[in-house]
Amino acid sequence: MSVSSRIKQTSSCGAKAHFAATRWSLVLAAGGDHDATDTRRALEELIQAYWFPLYAFVRRQGTLGETPAAAEDVVQEFFARMLEKKYLAQVDRSKGKFRSFLLAAVKHFLSKERDKLRTQKRGGRQAVIALDALDAEARYAIEPADGMTPDRIFERQWALAVLAQVLGRLRMEHAQAGKTRLYEAIEPCLTQGAQAVNYGQVSRELGMTEGAVRVAVHRLRRRYRDLLRDEIAQTVNSPGQVEEEISYLLNCL
């Protein structure tokens, strides 16, 4: 029986059943069985989304991550070990947040593996997922050089990663609908407020009425909120945690 089928069997009908089929729920339901295609895909999506927050955490912490190459090795090794040792089989499902699990797991990993990682040669393990380490370091370089703790920088980057996922989904939806120009023109309303859009200029450039542009902005902001809730739902284990996690995310920015 597939992981998806197992989830549906143990879920109630309606909204709760729909909610259960999330990336994190799939991974949790699989436990140590990471060979299933749907589970592997779900885990890889989570790793892709949250690799950089861990990279930033390791770099800011310093120990074992003094250089970009060392930090990359640490994070790749962590994910490889997580798969090999089936850490997810021991996850406390009552906590149910991928963010919380990930941070606790990497701290535990570092505390136990420091000596081994110090002596491990770079390149000795195949990467879990292809990533651009140079891009990661460029992103890390623009982080504030203040006293932000490793935990705080992880949480901030987690929040930014979630928002980036949402913006990526929005862009893709508009591209598929042939509305890339409209999206690019009104996207500032998501990060700077509706007043950031010059309605008159956008209407002239795209051949729309100002009223139509205002409607598009309203719809975009509403869709953004919906996708944010959906993206958060992918990383928690119960519907009741979604609003709490959104509030926490906003506080991390």
Tell me the β content.
under 5%
Helix content: 55-70%
**What's the story with the biggest beta sheet?**
none
| Shape estimate | globular
The strand count comes to: 0
Instruction: Output the structural class.
Output: mainly alpha
Q: Helices and strands, in N-to-C order?
A: HHHHHHHHHHHHH
Overall average pLDDT: 77
Count of separate structural domains: 1
* Rg estimate, integer Å: 20 Å
Distinct helical segment count? 13
Outline the low-pLDDT stretches: 1-21, 121-126
Distance between the termini: 41 Å
Describe the protein's architecture and organization:
The protein has helices at residues 3-10, 15-20, 23-30, 37-61, 68-84, 98-119, 133-141, 150-176, 180-186, 188-192, 199-206, 210-233, 242-252. The protein has 253 residues and is mainly α. It starts with a helix and ends with a helix. The model is unreliable at 1-21 and 121-126 (pLDDT under 50).
Keywords:
253 residues; globular
Provide a compact summary of the structure.
The protein has 253 residues and is mostly helical.
How would the blueprint of this fold be written?
Elements: H1 3-10, H2 15-20, H3 23-30, H4 37-61, H5 68-84, H6 98-119, H7 133-141, H8 150-176, H9 180-186, H10 188-192, H11 199-206, H12 210-233, H13 242-252
